């Protein structure tokens, strides 16, 4: 008999069991938040199945329409959107949904539900044709509108500090769900044969420093000088490397585990940034700050930005403490210089 096969090792803690144990931290929820997280996990399992057979059936490529952002919609975008909306409606815990793929709030009809969800159902879906990692990003709030009424914009525009849970699902070499409820960050890997998520990354902590910078280098000439200076400094540092696949969840997850920084500064085409505040910036900022990293728009934590519209775009810097500190020093100096020049009429 072989002793090193470890055949009798336990499979680990399932997502359901973990959620049940954590429920005590939210006495006001009475199980609704736990059910909501399960509904999101269920939809992600269905999306995982669709992605894995994408090359075998006609669900890759562009749909021929645009979303509210003016971006070309992929077939899988709409499939993921439908799957998550159905799961959240049928779960009964959500009164309204804001999705990247829809202009207006999606009213679920669950008027007595306590929560609203902002979601990017499938970020980076154009990469599916070339088998690159893609993901889902979500954010959960307790509603502030009266129970028994439809969801309102105010329910979604509470600000990043009001999130009660947020996270992402990465569909890659394995499918992993990472989320926080404000008490640390935990990751769960999907085991296909059992149809369950298992705790694989407990109490995730981002390294204080890192060697990776993730930025779309094609826009380098459009970046402000402090961004260029920071990138050039990273290039000169021994061991530093650029890693950017154009899939936000994939780039973010790598940096969270290994230490690094994700940079999406203003450009000529996107002067206010490109990433969506409610369902990209807020949830990833919540996750990274809970894991010991830092988020910023160049002047403040992303979680402190006051939202104005449902599909608002924003500048985003997400990364390890020391890297963000070095970038922030350059940005502060640049902003001070701009103010001085304006005051002097230059």
TrEMBL record:
Upper classification of the organism: Bacteria, Pseudomonadati, Bacteroidota, Cytophagia, Cytophagales
EC number: 3.1.3.11
Record text on cofactor binding: Binds 2 magnesium ions per subunit.
Superkingdom of the source species: Bacteria
Stated name of the protein: Fructose-1,6-bisphosphatase class 1
GO terms for biological process, alphabetical: fructose 1,6-bisphosphate metabolic process; fructose 6-phosphate metabolic process; fructose metabolic process; gluconeogenesis; sucrose biosynthetic process
Name of the encoding gene: fbp
Annotated organism of origin: Arcicella rosea
CDD domains given in the database record: FBPase
Residues noted as binding Mg(2+) 1 in the record, renumbered to the chain: 100, 120, 122
Pathway(s) served: Carbohydrate biosynthesis; Calvin cycle
PANTHER family recorded: FRUCTOSE-1,6-BISPHOSPHATASE-RELATED (PTHR11556), SEDOHEPTULOSE-1,7-BISPHOSPHATASE, CHLOROPLASTIC (PTHR11556:SF35)
